[in-house]
């Protein structure tokens, strides 16, 4: 299947250059081009392109706002941002909102082709295959009559996936990263015997980046890995808060609200959803991961 591209760029010269690079190198098809952010948002939601090349600085709506709007709509699109901006804060904000790669202007043909090929490889590995696996897992989980049915006899990966499914984040982009991290920690703990390993999350993210490059030949950014994971954990917090609001006696809420999060932060998120606070709760990725490990080692 050909990859479909949408280009958002207010410079006609760069529009034509990007289009020429994509078509000349047989990278895919162009299904839309726009220099207007609002128009682009509507068309992307309707056309659902595989990859969007978006300029950071646009006249009406900036690229970060476009990415944020599209991601909130649950449209499965991968973003590559293009800009001459060198501000680390703006680039970090772009990664936080969900872009996969950042290409600096002026446009370099070799760089554009290389980045697009890397994105397509990643999509093939993590989007198509993982989406299929997740769909099968979701069907299996929905057919279970108990939250923890046969959990004692399942593999550690199955146990992790069941917990993530119960939290409603099995389909999130950071789901695979979380699984890889927990499996690695469990393996290290087993080798360490009675003395569990000590680690920092920055070390884990760096390890994950090296593993993706060495084993899967996927080049990714440590900051992008961290943000994918944080978005997934934050979504879990939101889902848990909704469960608590709907039914304070919900089994999943009771089981995970305190072990995966600081319960005070869960309460803040619940009050934010109710409109009582202007801000939601905070997350700790390390507490979330350690909570899942405890749940696996000591199933209730």
TrEMBL record:
It comes from Crassaminicella thermophila. Keywords: Phosphoprotein, Two-component regulatory system. Signal peptide: none annotated. This is Stage 0 sporulation protein A homolog. PANTHER family: PROTEIN PILG, STRESS RESPONSE REGULATOR PROTEIN 1. SUPFAM superfamilies: CheY-like. One of its GO terms (biological process) is phosphorelay signal transduction system. The modification 4-aspartylphosphate is found at residue 55. It comes from the Bacteria. It holds the Pfam family Response_reg. Residues 4-120 form the Response regulatory domain. May play the central regulatory role in sporulation. It may be an element of the effector pathway responsible for the activation of sporulation genes in response to nutritional stress. Spo0A may act in concert with spo0H (a sigma factor) to control the expression of some genes that are critical to the sporulation process.
């Amino acid at each position: 299947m050909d990859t479909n591209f949408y280009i958002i760029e207010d410079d006609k010269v760069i529009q034509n250059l990007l289009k020429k690079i994509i078509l000349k190198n047989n990278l895919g098809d162009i299904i839309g081009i726009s220099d207007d952010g609002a128009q682009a948002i509507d068309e992307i939601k309707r056309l659902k392109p595989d990859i969007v090349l978006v300029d950071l600085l646009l006249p009406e709506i900036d690229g970060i706002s476009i990415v944020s709007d599209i991601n909130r709509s649950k449209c499965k699109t991968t973003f590559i941002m293009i800009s001459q901006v060198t501000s680390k804060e703006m680039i970090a904000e772009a990664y936080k909102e969900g872009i996969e790669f950042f290409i600096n202007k002026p446009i370099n043909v070799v760089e554009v082709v290389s980045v697009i090929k890397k994105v397509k490889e990643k999509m093939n590995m993590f989007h198509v295959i993982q989406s299929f696996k997740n769909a099968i897992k979701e069907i299996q989980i929905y057919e279970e009559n108990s939250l923890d049915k046969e959990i004692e006899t399942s593999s550690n990966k199955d146990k992790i996936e069941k917990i993530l499914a119960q939290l409603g984040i099995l389909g999130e982009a950071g789901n695979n990263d979380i699984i890889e991290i927990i499996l690695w920690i469990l393996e290290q703990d087993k080798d360490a015997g009675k003395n569990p390993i000590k680690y920092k999350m920055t070390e884990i993210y760096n390890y994950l980046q090296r593993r993706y490059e060495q084993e899967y030949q996927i080049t990714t950014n440590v900051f992008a890995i961290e943000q994918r994971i944080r978005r997934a954990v934050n979504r879990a917090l939101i889902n848990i808060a909704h469960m608590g609001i709907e039914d304070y006696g919900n089994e999943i809420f009771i089981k995970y609200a305190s072990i995966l999060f600081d319960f005070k932060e869960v309460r803040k998120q619940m009050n934010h959803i109710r409109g009582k606070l202007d801000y939601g709760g905070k997350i700790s990725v390390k507490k979330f991961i350690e909570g899942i490990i405890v749940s696996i080692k000591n199933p209730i």
